[in-house]
């Protein structure tokens, strides 16, 4: 995986092989960030990266100038890799080792972008729970998006606050807003 744009453009990141992750493909990530680039100034964002895994999405935001980034993952190895990589690049990424659903029920801060990349084999109820908890706990700023990455076999369009979806190969980004 690589950083697509910004200060660290072209830097390749090699995560340890033993991490239980499926990083967002470069093609899908580039398409997502092109959408966001037309809507936001990255240096003004507050980002919450759920199921952060390798930190791929967090690093892309940081490379583009975002300084308020929180990455949440339950796996110690993922958090360790994100911390080490962020430190080596001088990036300001706050990490939290936690179950995402527990974090969402206990969190109090608001974010402009809440990105979630859960395992593609999650049950439908678990996917549904992500935007539900965000809106129940008022974690999204008024002009923000909740973006859930999932496979084309999962459909989130019937959920409350669903806005639209973008398909990139086998990857789908579902957008939710107030």
TrEMBL record:
Protein known as: Methyltransferase
Segments crossing the lipid bilayer: none
GO biological process: rRNA methylation
GO molecular function: methyltransferase activity; nucleic acid binding
PROSITE patterns listed in its UniProt record: N6_MTASE
Origin superkingdom: Bacteria
Keyword flag DNA repair: no
């Amino acid at each position: 995986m690589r950083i697509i744009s910004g200060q660290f453009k072209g830097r390749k990141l090699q995560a340890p092989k033993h991490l239980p992750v499926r990083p967002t493909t470069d093609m899908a990530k580039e398409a997502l960030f092109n959408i966001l680039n037309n809507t936001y100034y990255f240096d003004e964002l507050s980002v919450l990266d759920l199921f952060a895994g390798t930190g791929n999405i967090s690093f892309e935001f940081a490379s583009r100038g975002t300084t308020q980034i929180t990455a949440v993952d339950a796996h110690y190895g993922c958090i360790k890799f994100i911390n080490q990589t962020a430190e080596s690049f001088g990036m300001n990424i706050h990490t939290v080792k936690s179950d995402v659903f527990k974090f969402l029920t206990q969190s109090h801060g608001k974010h402009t972008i809440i990105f979630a990349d859960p395992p593609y084999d999650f049950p439908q109820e678990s996917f549904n729970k992500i935007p539900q908890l965000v809106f129940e706990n008022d974690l999204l700023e008024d002009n923000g998006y909740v973006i859930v990455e999932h496979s084309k076999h999962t459909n989130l369009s019937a959920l409350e606050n669903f806005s639209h979806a973008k398909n990139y190969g086998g990857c789908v980004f579902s957008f939710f807003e107030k």
